[in-house]
Amino acid sequence: MTPMVEIINVSKSYRRGNRTIPVLVDINLNIEEGEFLALMGPSGSGKSTLLNLIAALDHLDSGAIRVGGIDITALSENELAEWRAVNVGFIFQFYNLIPVLTAFENVELPLLLTGLSRRQRNEHVEMALRIVNLEERMDHYPAQLSGGEQQRVAIARAIVTDPVILVADEPTGDLDKVAAREILELMDRLNRESHKTIIMVTHDPRAAEKARVIRRLEKGFLNDVHSQDPH
Amino acid sequence: MFILKILIRNAFRYKLRTLLTILGITVAILAFGLLRTFINAWYGGVEASSASRLVTRSSISLIFHLPLSYKDKIRQVDGVKTVSWGAWFGGVYIEEKNFFANFTVDAKSYLELYPEFLLSPEEINVFLRDRKGFVAGRKLAKRFGWKIGDTVTLRGTIYPGNWDFILRGIYRGRNETIDETQFFFHWDYLNEMLKKRGSPRADQVGFYMVGITRPDRAAEVALAIDQTFKNSLAETLTETEKAFQLSFISMSETIIMAIELVSFVVIIIIIAVVANTMSMTYRERIGEYAIFKTLGYRGWRIAGMIVGESMVITLIGTFLGIALTFPVAGVVGRMLSNYFPVFNVAEEAIYMDLAASLIIGLIAAIVPTYRSIRIRIADGLRRIG
Amino acid sequence: MGVPLSYSVRNLWTRRLTTILTASGMALVVFVFAAMLMLAQGLQKTLVETGSSDNAMVIRKGSATEVQSGVDRYQASIVETQPEVAIGEDGQPFLAKEAVVIISLHKRGTKQENYITIRGIGKSSLALRPQVRLIEGRLPRLGVSELIAGRSVAERFEGSGLGETLRFGLREWKVVGVFDAGNTGFNSEVWGDADQLMQTFRRYAYSSVIFKLRDPSQFDVVKKRIENDPRLTLEAKRENRYYAEQSEMMAAFLRILGASLTIIFSLGAIIGAMITMYAAVSTRTSEIGTMRALGFQRKSILSAFLFEALLLGLIGGLIGLFFASFLRFLTVSTMNFQTFSELAFDFTLTFDIAWKAIAFSLIMGFVGGVLPAVRAARMNIIESLRAT
Q1: Considering only CB atoms, which chain A residues are within 8 Å of C384?
Q2: Domains of chain A: total
Q3: C198 and C67 in one domain?
Q4: In degrees rounded to 5, what are phi and psi of residue B309?
């Protein structure tokens, strides 16, 4: 079976002044459908950069990336935007909800880029909010929600278009212990029950525990595979 | 000047925002300066009036004339030194939009009464000897390119016909408040022609200009003149030149007041917007000020930095605004030259500009300063994150 | 579909203070803009409505105004015999010979002098101006020192109300009536018997002759004849044209004044809008990054911020126009430079002025908002996501 994500000989560097700093060096990685992968490594190791490349937020210098069979490195900027809207769900460390929109409207946001009717959109949003258990708070603004609740809204937003991959960048970084555990359990459930492919960048070892596969990055190089048993 | 360097560097950390704020202040100061110049121009005639000159005219209105014979009676009034007379001619030069003030005067006495019109002695001599001669102000001559010796024709509106005059003198104003756009010619030239035509307007004067010996006696001399002609067929109204000019201005008072009011309000709004911006910037930097506190800087020192930065931005904007006021006033002055012969940027306007900028700079800094002095170190540091 | 409009609207609402301040700045500019246009419009409207195109006015050639003009009895009688002069109901030529002078009156309660036009009228004068109606008192009798005052003068000037007395030319003049001339300049005049006034002021010639055209289309014929007649030194204009010309200098002045003020102030308002929008973009950097990550195109971001700026302008414009519309209750009276006498007129709001004001506010919003919106659209996704 073709892997969901194929990362082939990918390299990327940043330019600072006249110096070129390599961030990713010749990365090769396959991520299977339904996998729950944690990318770990010290700061500056390039893990966030790799995540951004998979999510088509950034451009690589050399190599190719295929997601769901599509070579995303060959798409134009506008095509990438369209592709992201349908295929990628984002979960950020700081939730990144739009403060002036209600929980409902935040979750609805990605659907506005599709051609769905209002009724269809409402169905999808309600279902997503049900999955994350936040139906009763859907008319609240982010400022009225706790950190954990906000992250759950973000997750609902991430799954509402039924994307092929979920990318999470330090999803528990800004949460207390209890909320963090809730979020990780939610992500675990999404992975096991709905077979969502999740790629998570983290340096929280508890978060890494939930993942099925852990890869480490150091100075732009990918280390060997550490598989771990589903606990 | 280390402090100044820090202030300037800080101010330009957010180049675009600072630039816009400076521009905002520039516009506010420019607008303010321009408006004051405008109001000033309206009162222009008043500035140039002399305390030792009186204007005598018909008590009914300026359009009614007085007999020429009054001149002798006026001369006999106690306190009167010089008597001159004249009338508004209202001639049109080629077409109506070339409007400028033109009138006929008794040349010799008029020039005596108006030492602020500077002419060379030769010019005066030639002018006095040529009955068809006229004198024009420097700005007026420049506007139409007239040279000494040129013949200029005016089409009379009050006194019909085409009238030829020869330019015999170009006067300069003694200072910049003097109107340099006037055109005056000999009373005798007009009056002789009127007498020849048998016109009822012959020997009829539009106004008398009266020079008095002592300015502090102005009120009583004016009264004395009017008493002389009370209950005659043509009663007079005599007032100081300044009062005369003011009475014209008061007729357009409504418009002036409206302009003043609107200008102040608009400028206040712009100031508020700019102050809001500066507050935004300081709010963002509260964290930094907390750090300064941990390093041992005391409240008033921080306040000084904030106010200093605010003043740097404000002053730059103000100087730009003042600098721009001159060319802009020049352009506007040219466009309105028909209505305002004198359109100068007054010194007073500049001082008001500086005062305004001081106020802007301080007000913008008040709230941030207050907050930064009072902020607790821990709260401030948390904001940096 | 793009970013929802409610996003822009709610963001303006969330930062209420800044929105109000910036919109107020624009509101004020629009207010000044509209006020100036309304003033010039009101001035021209008053003067344009004064006088009718069915009437011809004859004054001395070269005189810009009636006050400067002089038409002697001989010339006036020649005009009276022109065939184009309509015949009135009484079988007489529908024509009036009028004498116009300026006197000074004090505003009620002040010592301030203003110049007022006094018009010496003939029998047909009132009928020639159907816009003029007597609203109080009666018409002046001929051969007596009686006056009727226009409403604007009667209300504001000492001695000119019904029953009051004015003193000039060594005579007392009783005000026996007040007339309303609608929106026209006649409201700022005082009328009395021409012969009486001419005697008092020792004027031996009329100022103008006004007559109704038998056939309005024949105006050019009679104009040509009058102006080419060697016995006459006169020129003829349609009455409304004559008055319209009286407003030109003043209207031009108001327009120049209005334009220069508006331009400078609008620069300030635009800068205010720019500052506000740049700040908005800067504060919402991570939101912009999020929306781009979610798949919104650059142009959607651009439109959202541009819409916000336009909305800001529109709010400012509507507020400014709202307050400007109250100016309609104000009457301005000032000296008309051209005629040298008082003229009262209103601020007139037309649909033309209203939409110009709104368009202007939208333009201000656009110019202020376009650069910040472009900046928002061009942001790099990764960098904006990193911002807090």
Answers
A1: none
A2: 1
A3: yes
A4: -65, -40
How far are the Cα atoms of A8, A49, A132, C221, C222 from residue C225, in angstroms, in the given order?
Answer: 99, 93, 95, 6, 5
Identify all chain C residues contacting A55, using CB atoms and an 8 Å cutoff: 293
Six token digits for residue C206: 């009329």
Instruction: Using CB atoms, pick whichever of C14, C295, C298 lies closest to residue A110.
Output: C295
Query: Residue C26 is part of which domain span?
Result: 5-48+246-386
Q: Is the dihedral of CA A134, A136, A140, A144 positive or negative?
A: negative
Enumerate the β-bridge partners of residue A11: A62
A126-140, A176-190, B15-29: lowest mean pLDDT where? Answer: B15-29
Lowest mean pLDDT among B153-157, B277-281, C302-306: B277-281
**Average pLDDT value for residue range A70-92:** 90
Answer whether C292 touches A (CB < 8 Å).
yes
Cβ C271–B92 below 8 Å, yes or no?
no
Using DSSP, state whether C1 is helix, strand or coil. coil
Question: Does ipTM top 0.90?
Answer: no
Question: Which tokens in the block code for residue A223?
Answer: 């280390």
Q: Is C195 exposed, middle or buried (0-12, 13-18, 19+ CB in 10 A)?
A: middle
Interface test with C, best of B25, B32, B35, B61 (most C CBs within 10 A): B61
DSSP structure string for A157-202 = HHHTT--SEEEEESTTTT--HHHHHHHHHHHHHHHHHH--EEEEE-
> Domain residues for A87?
5-224
| Average pLDDT score over residue span B299-304 | 77
Q: Kindly tell me the burial class for residue C283, based on how many C-beta atoms sit within 10 Å of its own C-beta (0-12, 13-18, 19 or more).
A: middle
The CATH number covering residue A194 comes to 3.40.50.300
pTM of the model: 0.80
Encoded tokens for B321: 């605004």
Residue A112 has pLDDT above 80, yes or no: yes
Domain count of the fold of chain C: 2
- pLDDT band at B383, cuts 50/70/90? low
Q: Which residues pair with C149 in a beta bridge?
A: C178, C190
Over residues C72-84, the pLDDT tens digits come to 899 999 998 888 8
* CA-closest candidate to residue B114, choices B42, B188, B174, B186: B174
Name the β-bridge partners of C171.
C168
